[in-house]
Design goal:
The protein is of the alpha+beta class. Helices cover 29% and strands 24% of the residues.
Length: 276
């Protein structure tokens, strides 16, 4: 009889535990679905792939790709409808595509660094916020170092997927991310580090060549992963930053991407420049 009581009690505890876990995870599942649905809708409305349109041109360029490295990268031929985006919110400044995180979203640039922590790029109140640039970032992202911030969502959405780049194999599989301004930036995942929110990682503004070279060298030395070919000179960096854990500490994950190519025109076909 006593054993039967203990068994019933254990079953009851197990049921209550499962119920608690279900009701704890349910809101997260709903948020995850909402994020993915809204991203898909935004991509469908504002992004145009030009792969088929440029198929013949790209096949020709593949034959001479040694003359212009990276020019056959199809992601450089996307067109973003910035007119449509800015009719919804004039503070949308860019579009970010990270194949390794399946993140394909508009980027906001507000008047302060708090608003887009709780609002998406279309100014809708959302707990997952938006990917955004600091308020003192130049509109054309012309400085040597640019930073984008985003929440670390448990389900891997927003900047929650950046943790994958702690693994060298993931960096090898998905070596590039892309920023559209509306010109296209091809950015190679370069270094990954865990740091403090007040560290020198977050330095912005003007640089002397000596300061820049010292800062770049420090990023190399502090990187969790750093493979072959990374020793080439880096002139411009895009940093993606997110919290580590639940955000209660000052620890941050920073993924640094070296800007390797910039297509200055809207279509990315008429004029291109390789950063040397």
């Amino acid at each position: 009889m006593e054993r039967e009581k203990i068994s019933r009690k254990r079953r009851g505890i197990a049921v209550l535990t499962l119920a608690a876990l279900f009701f704890w995870y349910l809101p997260q599942i709903q948020v995850s679905r909402q994020i993915r649905k809204e991203q898909e809708e935004a991509v469908e409305m504002y992004v145009r792939e030009e792969k088929e349109e440029n198929k013949e041109e790209n096949e020709k360029s593949e034959e001479v790709q040694e003359q212009e490295p990276g020019s056959t990268d199809q992601n450089l031929f996307r067109t973003i409808d910035f007119t449509g985006l800015r009719s919804k919110n004039r503070e949308i400044c860019a579009w970010l595509w990270i194949p390794g995180c399946a993140l394909d979203v508009p980027v906001a640039h507000g008047q302060d660094n708090a608003y887009y922590l709780t609002h998406d790029a279309f100014c809708r109140e959302r707990i997952y916020g938006s990917i955004f640039a600091p308020c003192d970032t130049p509109e054309d992202f012309s400085e040597r170092h640019t930073i984008l911030y985003g929440h670390n969502m448990r389900d891997g959405t927003m900047f929650g997927g950046l943790k994958k780049y702690r693994e060298a194999s993931w960096k090898q599989e998905f070596p590039y991310l892309y920023l559209y301004l509306p010109g296209a930036w091809q950015c190679r995942i370069w270094s990954v580090e865990e740091t403090d929110a007040k560290s020198d990682v977050y330095r912005l503004g003007a640089w002397s060549d000596a300061d820049w070279n010292a800062w770049v060298q420090e990023r190399k030395e502090n990187s969790i992963i750093f493979g072959s070919g990374e020793e080439k000179e880096v002139q411009k960096i895009l940093t993606l930053s997110t919290c580590i854990g639940d955000g209660s500490s000052s620890q941050r994950l920073a993924v640094h991407a070296a800007v390797e190519m910039i297509f200055a025109t809207k279509s990315g076909r008429e004029e291109g420049s390789v950063l040397e």
